[in-house]
Amino acid sequence: AQKVTQAQTEISVVEKEDVTLDCVYETRDTTYYLFWYKQPPSGELVFLIRRNSFDEQNEISGRYSWNFQKSTSSFNFTITASQVVDSAVYFCALSEAMSISNFGNEKLTFGTGTRLTIIP
Amino acid sequence: EAQVTQNPRYLITVTGKKLTVTCSQNMNHEYMSWYRQDPGLGLRQIYYSMNVEVTDKGDVPEGYKVSRKEKRNFPLILESPSPNQTSLYFCASSGDGANYGYTFGSGTRLTVV
Predict the structure, then answer these.
(1) Distance between CA atoms of residues B98 and B26, nearest Å
(2) DSSP 3-state assignment of B99?
(3) Which of A44, A50, A71, A73 is 20 to 30 Å from A26 by CA-CA measure?
(4) Are B24 and B72 in contact (CB under 8 A)?
(5) Using one digit for the tens of pLDDT, what is the confidence trace for A38-62?
(6) Distance between CA atoms of A77 and A90, rounded to whole angstroms?
(7) Does the pLDDT of residue B95 top 90, yes or no?
(8) Contact state of B43 with A110 under an 8 Å Cβ cutoff
(9) Which residues of chain A register pLDDT less than 70?
């Protein structure tokens, strides 16, 4: 069965510090997708990134970066030079795709989330 | 604008009074799903639908019903709500192929008293 673990329940850092949110996943499939979502205090879920299991390249988007390592089943998320607007709950999620042509058929399994607070 | 629209945003109801949370998407997605979010548990899938008239249970389907009569709509029905269904609910739709990835609605915060 698929599982996502976000061991950090809450993190607080001072503004401008870097912070890394950990995500460890379990799956038996060789084809899967990993996601990160941001949930600000307003409650909506904001898509941040999707990564498929065949692409281990790290990705950078502005102050955000993601480190995908299949060897350790981890997909960690780093915010550089954090800002108050980054305060939110962040969810890591896993989807097992049954086949290349079957995208979207599988549920998203979410971690329990990490509440990030940026202190001004 | 591509979006998933849920209504209502907030709802307080009494035990046993049937209610429906509506969900509509304008992206022509085949796949839609409902999740509930509870503290310490993350989001869990309630039901999903792979196409019109094709629905199936997720991890926590008890006490819920869904229907998919049109591609764009996927309502969540609570025929006899109970306090343990107090939660934050999200509807999502997903594209396929290069567009794979879920778009979530804004959420419905339901309180059952």
Answers:
(1) 18
(2) helix
(3) A44
(4) yes
(5) 999 999 999 899 888 888 888 888 9
(6) 9
(7) no
(8) yes
(9) 97-106
